[in-house]
Amino acid sequence: MSEKKALRVLIVDDYDMTRTLLRIILRGQNFEVVGDATDGQMAVEMCQRLKPDIMLLDVVMPKMNGLDVLAKLKAMSGAPLVLMVTSSEEEKVVSQAMQLGASGYILKPFNTASVIETLNEARERFILRSAASVSRTAANS
């Protein structure tokens, strides 16, 4: 087994093929897919229950769009790092997601290399965030 801990990933997209492709890409890449959701409401519920490290979050979905989900998650303690998955190249949507706290984004149609590269960058941010959290906890003790 790899020395790196497999990070837990929740995939959120209303399109079955996108969820399936992301699951296939992550297989063997030291990421554990802990679940997938088809709408924003389900995403929030599953995030609270499954506590993923990273969420791959579609922007356009039924019940609650990805930007609304992101805003809800950021209000929760222990929220995962969020990577937006979008077919929109509109600067406004990407900019709004980043302002709401997204850690990055993956543009559709995506390829394996870009998804893995983006997730590995997120892994580094997760490790740094976790280390900072441990340091703050130790300093407050």
Automatic annotation (TrEMBL):
Residues 8-123 form the Response regulatory domain. The modification 4-aspartylphosphate is found at D58. PROSITE patterns: RESPONSE_REGULATORY (PS50110). The keyword Phosphoprotein applies. It holds the Pfam family Response_reg. Gene3D superfamilies: 3.40.50.2300. GO terms for biological process: phosphorelay signal transduction system. The keyword Phosphoprotein applies. SMART domains: REC. CDD domains: REC_CheB-like (cd17541). Keywords: Phosphoprotein. This is Response regulator. It comes from Undibacterium nitidum.
